[in-house]
Structure formats: C-alpha cells, structure tokens
Specification:
alpha+beta, 104 residues, two-stranded antiparallel sheet
C-alpha cells in the first residue's frame, strides 16, 4: 500500500484498488454513527462527476427498507454512503442536515 495524490493504492489480485482519503466524508460517517436509530454506516462506490459542486453537499439518493443511499459531493468527487437505520425518511433528512452542518 502506498500514497498517491491524497489517496491510498493497494495491490489486489485483480489490479490496484484506489482507496480515497476524503476527510469530509470520514467526518460525516463519524457524525452519522453517533445518531440514535442508525445501526451502521459504510462507504459505497466512489466516482468522479462531470458536474462540479462548489461546496460539500450530501443528498439522499434512494431508500430501500431500512437502508439509505447518500451521495456526498464536493467539486467533481462523489462518494456513496450507505446507512442502515430505523429512522423514517424525515428523521433521516434531519439527521443528514445536522451532520452535514457539523462537518462544514
């Protein structure tokens, strides 16, 4: 494993896996993990978007049963964040807003 332009590269049997180190997303995950009703928080896919977000933003992309998919965006970076929770949709929106405000 070695560092390259703010990310970690790790060799695997299928090539090189790039693990992005993004402090805002790490802080968001830590904040979400503190919320009552949230069982787990994990990273999904990371990708680059052709569109630019001027500031750190978090969107609720989809929901299935007790699992929410969030999209954290800044500049052209997008990180999926998967949250398992017993919170309803409105409570989850409120939790996301509160956590995002603490991250910025």
């Amino acid at each position: 494993m070695f560092s390259f332009e703010g990310s970690l590269l790790m060799g695997t049997a299928h090539g090189v896996l790039r693990l992005i180190v993004w402090p805002d997303v790490e802080s968001l995950i830590k904040e979400l993990e503190q919320i009552d009703g949230i069982q787990s928080v994990s990273k999904g896919r990371f990708f680059l978007s052709p569109g630019l977000a001027p500031t750190f933003q978090v969107y609720m992309a989809s929901m299935f049963e007790n699992q929410y998919k969030l999209l954290a965006r800044s500049e052209n970076k997008v990180q999926e964040v998967i949250v398992e929770a017993t919170l309803g949709k409105e409570d989850m929106k409120s939790a996301i807003l509160n956590c995002t405000n603490r991250v910025e």
